[in-house]
Task: inverse folding
C-alpha cells in the first residue's frame, strides 16, 4: 500500500497535495492519511480532497500503529510525523512540497525519515552544510535526487498567446522567523512590477498568491491588493489574481473590482515574459520552466544559500527589499546564469520519465536499496 501522511489544520496545505494527484504524480490508489483534529478546518480539508477525487481518511495514532506494510510519503514536517515513523513495518519517505532555500528545508527533523527526496545537488549540499546528513548518508543513498518530480508547476504555458508579468509571492510563514513574503513591502513590489511592465513591454500583471496567504496575517494579501490595484489601474496595467486556492468575501471582490481587478481560475492561457517571486519553491519552478525572473529578497538570507552558489552572480537577479534601486532588465549574462542555476538545483536524470511513472520508478529503487 502507498500512503501520504498529512498533519495540518491549514486548508491550503490540502490543496497543495491535491495538485500532486492532478499532475499524475500520485495515482488514485494512493491514500492520504489526515491526522484527526477536533477543528473546524477538518470539514474544509475533507471537502478539498472530495472535490479533488483524492482517496483519504482521518486517522488517529492507533490507526497509524495498525498499518502493517507499505510506503508512507511525507510532504510536510510535523511533530506527529515522529509518531508515524515509529511504525517500522513501513518505509518512510520525505518528499517535501517544493524545493527552496527556506530554513524549513533544513530542519533537523528531516533525519527521522528512511529516505529524503530532493530535486538536485543543491538539496544534498544544503543538508551537508546544515549537518543534517553526513557524506556517509549520501553514500548510502538516504538522499535521492528526483529532478522536478515534486517541485510543482506554475500552471503557465510556454507557447500561450498572451505574455504577462507574473508575480507569485510566498505566504507569511507559520512563525515570523520563517516569513519570506514580499507582500509586506507593497511599495517596493509595486515599483518593480510596474517598472517591469515598461521594460518588458507587457500590459498585464497576473498575481498567483501562495494558497496559505493570510493564514497567520489575515489581511496581508488584501492590504497589498488594495494598495497596488489603483496604481496599476492608473498606469493602464490590467491586474488579474489567480484565486483557485483562495477565498475572498463579496465585499473584497466588489472593492477590488472597482479597480478593474479580475479573478481567474486558469493560467494556461498565459506565458510569463518576466516573473517575480520570493525566497520560496516558486524560484525552483521558474528555473524548471526557464522563466526569466527576479527574486524579492532580504540580504540576511544570503547566508542560507547552498555553498556552491556564487553569491555575486546570484545577486544579479535579486531585488533587496531593504533597498530602493531602479530595476534593470535581465541581460544575456543573467539569463545564462539562471540556466546554470537550474542544472544545480534540478537534476536532469529523470527528464525522460513521465511524471506519472516516477513514483513507480522510486518504489523500484527503494526496493533495490533495501535488498
Result:
Amino acid at each position: 500500500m502507498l500512503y501520504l501522511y498529512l498533519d495540518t489544520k491549514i486548508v491550503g496545505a490540502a490543496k497543495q497535495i491535491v495538485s500532486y494527484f492532478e499532475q499524475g504524480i500520485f495515482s488514485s490508489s494512493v491514500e492520504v492519511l489526515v491526522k484527526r483534529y477536533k477543528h473546524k478546518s477538518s470539514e474544509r480539508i475533507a471537502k478539498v480532497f472530495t472535490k479533488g477525487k483524492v482517496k483519504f481518511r482521518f486517522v488517529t495514532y492507533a490507526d497509524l500503529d495498525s498499518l502493517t506494510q507499505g510506503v508512507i510519503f511525507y510532504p510536510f514536517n510535523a511533530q506527529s510525523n515522529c509518531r508515524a515513523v515509529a511504525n517500522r513495518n513501513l518505509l518512510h519517505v520525505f518528499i517535501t512540497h517544493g524545493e527552496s532555500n527556506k530554513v524549513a528545508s533544513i530542519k533537523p527533523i528531516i533525519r527521522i525519515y528512511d529516505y529524503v527526496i530532493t530535486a538536485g545537488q543543491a538539496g544534498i549540499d544544503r543538508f551537508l552544510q546544515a549537518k543534517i546528513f553526513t557524506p556517509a548518508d549520501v553514500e548510502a543513498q538516504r538522499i535521492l535526487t528526483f529532478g522536478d518530480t515534486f517541485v510543482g508547476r506554475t500552471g503557465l504555458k510556454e507557447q500561450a498567446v498572451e505574455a504577462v508579468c507574473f508575480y507569485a509571492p510566498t505566504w507569511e510563514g507559520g512563525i515570523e522567523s520563517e516569513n519570506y513574503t514580499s507582500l509586506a513591502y507593497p511599495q517596493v513590489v509595486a515599483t518593480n512590477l510596474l517598472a517591469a511592465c515598461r521594460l518588458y513591454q507587457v500590459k498585464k500583471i497576473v498575481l498567483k498568491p501562495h494558497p496559505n496567504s493570510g493564514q497567520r496575517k489575515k489581511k496581508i494579501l488584501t492590504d497589498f491588493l488594495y494598495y497596488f490595484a489603483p496604481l496599476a489601474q492608473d498606469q493602464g496595467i490590467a491586474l488579474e489574481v489567480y484565486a483557485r486556492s483562495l477565498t475572498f468575501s463579496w465585499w473584497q471582490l466588489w472593492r477590488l473590482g472597482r479597480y478593474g481587478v479580475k479573478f481567474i481560475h486558469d493560467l494556461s492561457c498565459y506565458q510569463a515574459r518576466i516573473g517575480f517571486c520570493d525566497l520560496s519553491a516558486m524560484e525552483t519552478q521558474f528555473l524548471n520552466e526557464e522563466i526569466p525572473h527576479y527574486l524579492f529578497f532580504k540580504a540576511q538570507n544570503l547566508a542560507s544559500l547552498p555553498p556552491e552558489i556564487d553569491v555575486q552572480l546570484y545577486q544579479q537577479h535579486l531585488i533587496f527589499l531593504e533597498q530602493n534601486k531602479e530595476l534593470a532588465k535581465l541581460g544575456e549574462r543573467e539569463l545564462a546564469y539562471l540556466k546554470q542555476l537550474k542544472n544545480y538545483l534540478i537534476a536532469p536524470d529523470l527528464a525522460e520519465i513521465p511524471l506519472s511513472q516516477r513514483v513507480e520508478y522510486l518504489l523500484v529503487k527503494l526496493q533495490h536499496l533495501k535488498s
